[in-house]
Amino acid sequence: MAPSAVREADIARLPLKTDGAKNGSTKHAEDVQMIESQDKTQFVLGCYRVLIADLCQQFNMGHPGSAMGMAAIGIALWKYVMKYSPSNPDWINRDRFVLSNGHACLFQYSFLHLVGYQNMTFEQLTSYHSDRWDSYCPGHPEIEHPGIEVTTGPLGQGIANAVGLAMASKHLGAQYNQPGCEVINNMTWVTIGDACLQEGLGMESIQLAGHWKLNNLCVIFDNNNITCDGSADIAMSDDTNAKMRACGFDVLEVEDGNYDVESIVRALVAARVSKDKPTFINIKTTIGVSSKKQNTAGVHGAPLGKEDIEYIKKSNGMDVDKHLHVPQEVYDFFREAVPRGQELEKDYKQVLSKYTKEYSDLAKEFNQRMKGELIGDWTKCIPLKDSFPSNPEPSRKSAGNVGVALAENIPNIMLGTADLAPSVNLSSKTKVDFQSPSTQVSSGPNGNYSGRYIHWGIREHAMASVSNGLAAFQKGAILPVTSSFFMFYIYAAPGVRMGALQSLQVIHIATHDSIGTGEDGPTHQPIELAALYRAMPNFLYIRPCDAEEVAGAWTAAINAKETPSMISLARQDVPQYPSHSSRAGVAKGAYVFVEEEGADVTLIGVGAEMRFAVGAAKVLKERHGLKTRIVSFPSQRLFEAQPLQYKREVLQYRSSAPRVVIEAYAVNGWERYADAGYSMHSFGHSLPRNDIYARFNFTEEKLAGKVKELVEEVKREGMESLRGEFRDLNTEYVRDVFHSPQGVVHDKR
Amino acid sequence: MAPSAVREADIARLPLKTDGAKNGSTKHAEDVQMIESQDKTQFVLGCYRVLIADLCQQFNMGHPGSAMGMAAIGIALWKYVMKYSPSNPDWINRDRFVLSNGHACLFQYSFLHLVGYQNMTFEQLTSYHSDRWDSYCPGHPEIEHPGIEVTTGPLGQGIANAVGLAMASKHLGAQYNQPGCEVINNMTWVTIGDACLQEGLGMESIQLAGHWKLNNLCVIFDNNNITCDGSADIAMSDDTNAKMRACGFDVLEVEDGNYDVESIVRALVAARVSKDKPTFINIKTTIGVSSKKQNTAGVHGAPLGKEDIEYIKKSNGMDVDKHLHVPQEVYDFFREAVPRGQELEKDYKQVLSKYTKEYSDLAKEFNQRMKGELIGDWTKCIPLKDSFPSNPEPSRKSAGNVGVALAENIPNIMLGTADLAPSVNLSSKTKVDFQSPSTQVSSGPNGNYSGRYIHWGIREHAMASVSNGLAAFQKGAILPVTSSFFMFYIYAAPGVRMGALQSLQVIHIATHDSIGTGEDGPTHQPIELAALYRAMPNFLYIRPCDAEEVAGAWTAAINAKETPSMISLARQDVPQYPSHSSRAGVAKGAYVFVEEEGADVTLIGVGAEMRFAVGAAKVLKERHGLKTRIVSFPSQRLFEAQPLQYKREVLQYRSSAPRVVIEAYAVNGWERYADAGYSMHSFGHSLPRNDIYARFNFTEEKLAGKVKELVEEVKREGMESLRGEFRDLNTEYVRDVFHSPQGVVHDKR
Question: B199 vs A200: CB contact, 8 Å cut-off?
């Protein structure tokens, strides 16, 4: 089949040999000229497609279609264009490859095997969908495995990660590259299917890549026009190329993505030399090509069946009696991958060597960054207790002070917001924005790629998911910090979860975290969101009550190298408690805030609602003669890690004094730690921030009244009367407050 | 200021008088010709802008800028173009208006007042940001208030709702309109700012509107190029018009959106007669126009200050000493709104009258729909117990059987999926897809607007948010049913929440709901998501264990007229329990599954993990001689609504037998109902579905072993030994299973 030409929609036709290739050595471009003969290529394509089909048949499950359809793309990437070293998957300056259509993972696993990644033995490859716990071929690619840059699967995440990886390259290159010493100049390649163009997250990421002119990013569209429900046009009519151009991408097309390796190579090389735009390559493929059921949804996620596989083998000229067979010629086809990779590494070592000699200070810092160390002493950025004001201040402001100091002093930190800069208090006066140096911002300021302040726009989900890519580039080299209103971390939740799953350290600053937000109303007032983040594995949700606890929260978040964190902060003033609050206590998740011998009750205060616990304790003492001890409980996850003895000391499980948790959220999850709760049982309301807590019965008097009743009951009947029946002390308000004058009850429980 | 022309980017210039206006009577088009004099209009614009500024100054907070900037748009909509009746905000065929940039709500509130909505008195208008609980002017528009179609605030939600409202119009029109009797033919207008073009949800919705050719939708872009962080181009470089065209919209522009009412009117009228595309009107405005700080982020969300307001009053020719003053001329300017609306209603009554006469059966059904009644007897679609198979079957299949029967028989139901039709089992053979009648789907089938099966594409968030719009059109007329994998309802969560907040009945069918999903791995296996949905106010999360409980779940969901639901279902086979399971029990949230006198322990089985409770009970009896009673607990929210006595009977709080909950999720929230839990404490893993539960220690033997230990401890030391310390019985596996051969511990707790 004669190769069809690449139709460049936007840029002039390039010769194969590239001059001044931005991201490759001339040597590599010369390699590219030596495209293998068509016969050989077709043979390898056939063997590959048969292998995929057999692998999905082995345990009678899998996703064969896209992997088969993308075979030629894979050859173009792994044999001809990408810079990588199979013998060293951790080589810093390797090209990054992301499979955003993660269900097609067999595509990537197979090529990793064929080009010689040592962990991806044939035995491992054939463990796809087996019951091996330690298989390198799980149902979707996982970051822990060599050759896999990020975990994908949920659609849109991969392309977002790729944007982050490309940002990281640009940024680190801008920070450390010097003339003649390009220590970071790799390319990022990401494949997508139709799904990533439909998912909102995909579009958010595409807009950002275009805005930042990430010319080191190439998005490869496996355009097979098939989704689970049928052809893609069952739910989509976009002019995709026009849309991508409108978002600032160069667009190239390949007509015959099934067989025309050379045209794909040309397009990829053109992407690599793109001057100032990311590239989108629209490659037309046939899902499950060479199967009887090709071009249908049936080949997407199910085994093809013995009969079809026979057919596939015949039509590819293979022996129908051989199963899971890779002829030696196929391994020969890819034989140069290992030595070429080692050659690239050798060249790189020379660059590093020159760099170390001529720019020794910078090189020292660069090496530290690549080892994942934070540059400088971050602990000095955390204010000491005696520096805090005694007046109330919003905890978002306390956190902002720390965040700004950290951002100013620790080069690893890239901090940004989803268009709430004035509200989240994290803008340093000396900040430099991450922007393309050629971007003119009407309001100013302009920026450049060395900038470490990120304007994410109103894209909370991309903020989280792209940040995972920033963190994944090289573990610890970049510490991303995101920020928005806590309520809008419900938009970001899929991306936040992916960070937890991949053990990527990202710190999320979540302000305006309760009804205390006030006037904005119930759409902005979280009630149930903390329950999600407290239940999420490998995630640290911390809700500090004052500036001292904020210091503890930041400390815990920075120390959690394998775990993302969220610091939950108040919009409104919170009192400061210099005699009680303790950053060391935060590290333990909960601690005794105010001890009291022979206490009648323990109040557990959380975050912005601590002031009600403290206020109620005063009322209980002065008006009712009752003794109260107070526990502060900023983080359930950290508390769970403590020894049992410590937990018992703090919570006094066996005492005859009941424990009441006080937080203006749904109480789900607190029942483990308390006997009763003073909580929210509905959505919030739009009211001024000075009025809203009281409207929902959060006043010291009312709380003290309810606690007193509970204490009296326990004194009469013993703790036994509470056993097994968690008490909600604040349910009456629902009927009171939602009966509007019009006589309509808005039952928002 | 001379009005500038509308520059139509795509369509020919239209005369003001429209012939064959798709969505308006000729009479209304003639109204449009009578554009008021410029002097009058400028005067009203000035008064309006001053009013907005004063309203935000009154309590020293608010969002003045966009409302001021959009004044001319408001006049064009409410005085000239929209069809509505202030005396009857519930008139069925009214145009729907949505303010997707919800923070600019003063814009809408003010016009509702000026055109004469009875509830929006001047006193009410001036309650914006006051401490009135029952204010009609909360910080963001709320659906419960007359004149407000949907609650907005979180960005992207409004435009998604608008797509749903437009779909509803198309669909109901296709179902019920007859020649000469158009009972539903209204237009939907939605304003957006930059944010809704950045939010992924906005793009998902735009793609759907373009794909479905919703020519009855007009998106009005308040293009002020300002966001919180500065000019919009700080984070966005899209060619917005080109992008909208690529997504299938007609694009119009208005150069002077601040003052040129006539050009805006022309554009809106052009949108109304659009033949087969939704319209996007790109209107250039200046945020906070006439303020000293106009065109800066400073006017977005803060009061303007006394000095600036004086300046604004002066530059608009107003008396600086008058505050919150609306001259009578302004009311006169809008005086025709009420009578015109009543005239429109009168015309409509005639249409209805003719319809009732000539199409009486259809009219009867139409009236029922508009009253919110389900047509037909849905209870007949819920299979009786004796019709269920005795063999195991996946609960997603059981639910699918019910779902298909409902969809086939109940016209109110519009059911769809986010591209997982083969997996969610909800496709009826007789289904008709919701599509534009002119859309050719490559794979087929084609559809039309009367279709009730919706292909959402890979857009879970839009699926939920647009469905809120479908439900909001007319309460109960449409009952949307969505479907996807449970894990991907983390993408949909913001939209699901908005449904709960607005009391909109939408049913979400969430399949593949646990580690039982198997091979797809941890990205697809929910652990913490149920905690979110169980804690969400006004939301019903139900996890049925077999087909009988599935019947109960559907029943509860359909009966919940003011509450959205999620039915959580297994991918894999679950056993059937004809002697134990009970749909009546589901209605109570939890019930006794297997009673046992003198039981040593109560096991709480949930959903797909019920089989471990049942299996362990058998082992406990046969091997350890222990008696077990079993409780099934499909819904916490329904259980909480039961009387205390019932709850005590089911859970036996005071018994000496401990209660153990068994669910393969994080246990957060179950501590209210149990003393111990057998749960997940990490993310999942990619393993075949037949192996995965066992790998995480979910086997009857291991579970029985742990329960036996607990029972023995309690027998020795009494229930007191468990008091206050919830027991996690399944934590050891974390160390066991995450120690990979390479010696690396993946600590995914």
Answer: yes
